[in-house]
Amino acid sequence: MPLVEIFVLALASALWPALVAVVVVALATPEPVRLLTPFLAGALLTTVTIGMVLVTLFQGSSLETRSRSTVDPVVDIVAGVAALLLGLIVSRRGSSSSGAPKRDKESGTPGWSERMLTRGATLAFVVGIVLNVIPGVLPFVALKNIAELDYSTAATFALVVGFYVVMLLPAELPLLAYLVAPERSAAAVARFNAWLGRSMRRIVVAVLYAAGLYLIVRGLLSLR
């Protein structure tokens, strides 16, 4: 069950607003492969490194030494409330963006990241690092869950890598499609990107609300 929950959190994290916005911007450029490849390299390097550091800190902190019956529910409730608040912010930004470009307003991604991403591979690598220095709410919960499994270092590393590989699927799948069959993939990826740009805000808000409610309910039930 813990592994299933970690996998579900990874899927939900794949719709993190900043990540989806970057993918939409990159796929709209003439050379998405040249931008997505360094972005993914920077993102994976940063997330896995910080993820392992956090897991190690969790394993040596009060999360492990104190009773989990009191620590876990508090973490879940706080993370759930944060997810709901973020969903509300994304929703309100979208509803107030009439007449403005959807990409900038609905995504919640800072304008600097979009500008840097389209200026070349080196800056795309930097964007991948900067946007992932601070873990999101759902990855934080997942890393806490990974720490509690108390696996070996190798198994923990593999699980952290697996989590972030799943989380970055929105960027990995289009990139893989372009690398395997660039001509056939171009039209399909363009249609997908257009749909994602139109539907991104609604999907992200729905996932954040669902994840937030789940974490709050689970935390409250664990307090009983």
| Computed structural class | mainly alpha
Count the beta strands.
Answer: 0
The shape, in one word, is globular
Instruction: Indicate the radius of gyration in whole angstroms.
Output: 18 Å
User: H/E order of the elements?
Assistant: HHHHHHHHHHHH
Q: Taking all residues together, what is the mean pLDDT?
A: 81
Helix content: over 70%
How many helix segments? 12
How many domains?
1
Describe this structure in words.
The protein is mainly alpha-helical. It has one domain. Helices cover 84% and strands 0% of the residues. The chain is built from twelve helices and no strands. The longest helix has 42 residues.
At a glance:
The longest helix is centred in the last third of the chain and has 42 residues, at 182-223. The chain has helices at 2-13, 17-27, 32-59, 62-65, 68-95, 102-107, 111-117, 121-130, 137-149, 153-167, 169-180, 182-223. Residues 96-110 have low confidence and may be disordered.
Present the secondary structure layout.
Elements: H1 2-13, H2 17-27, H3 32-59, H4 62-65, H5 68-95, H6 102-107, H7 111-117, H8 121-130, H9 137-149, H10 153-167, H11 169-180, H12 182-223
Descriptive labels:
mainly alpha; 12 helices
